[in-house]
Amino acid sequence: MESRVKQLRLERAWSQERLAELSSLSTRTIQRIENNEVPSLETLSALASVFNVSVSELTSEPLPESIELDSRIAEAKKRVKDEAKLLKSIIVAIIVCAIMYFLIIYMRRIVIGLFGLWLFGAVF
């Protein structure tokens, strides 16, 4: 029995090496999957993304709660995207705070220097 991954790969006229490159998996992993070894969820997700299909479409046996599985993967991807956005905001805030701190320190020195010049001028 031919695996679904192999069918999809051959439909696109891709070599195992090309599929491995596109999915960021090793060629050996692709070979194992095509020989009906059970892949991990992460591997299935990577392949589903490359083939633009759901994870449940890649397995020959029905996955329990396959719809829930696909939605959980989509939710996890959204969470990663949101966390990356939050991290970027935090980094920007830290940079702005650092710039403000150095501006305050620099401006304080200028003000103290000007006050000294004014005081020196008032004395003489």
Automatic annotation (TrEMBL):
Pfam family, one: HTH_3
PROSITE patterns reported in the protein's UniProt record: HTH_CROC1 (PS50943)
Protein's UniProt keywords contain Isomerase: no
Transmembrane segments: 86-107
Gene3D superfamilies reported for this sequence: lambda repressor-like DNA-binding domains (1.10.260.40)
InterPro entries tied to this protein: Cro/C1-type_HTH, Lambda_DNA-bd_dom_sf, TransReg_Diox_bact_type
Record's protein name: XRE family transcriptional regulator
